[in-house]
Amino acid sequence: MAPQTPKIYKVTLDCAQAASDKIFDAAAFEKFLHDRFKVNGRTNNLGEAVKIARDGDSKVTVTSTVPFSKRYVKYLAKKFLKKYQLRDWLRVVASDRNSFQLRYFNIDQAAEEADE
C-alpha cells in the first residue's frame, strides 16, 4: 500500500470588520493562540503539527495535521474576547464549514425591543 498523506485540518477566523474599527488586534490574537493552543493535552507543543498564520489584520488561520475541532478555535476566540472585554460587543459566528467570523451584536434591534 502507498503511504497515506496526513489529513490537513484548516480553520479560518475572519476579523476584518472589527480590525478595521481598531477594536480587535489580530496580532495579539495570534499570540494568544500560540500560547494557549493545546496539542496532545499540552500547551507550547505546536511543533510542526500546527501552524498559526495571520493574513494582515483581517484573517487568522490555524492549519494542522493533528486532528482538532473547529469548536476548540471558537472556544479560544471567545476566551480571548472575554480577556480583552470585547465579549459584550463582538460574537463569533460560523460563516461556513471551515471558518468563523467576528460580528458585532445587533444592539439597535435589542434597544427597540426594550422600548416596546
TrEMBL record:
Record carries keyword Ribosomal protein: yes
Domain of life: Eukaryota
Sequence similarity: Belongs to the eukaryotic ribosomal protein eL22 family.
Keywords per UniProt: Ribonucleoprotein, Ribosomal protein
Protein name, entry field: Ribosomal protein L22e
Record InterPro entries: Ribosomal_eL22 (IPR002671), Ribosomal_eL22_sf (IPR038526)
GO molecular function: RNA binding; structural constituent of ribosome
GO biological process, one term: cytoplasmic translation
A GO CC term attached to the entry: cytoplasm
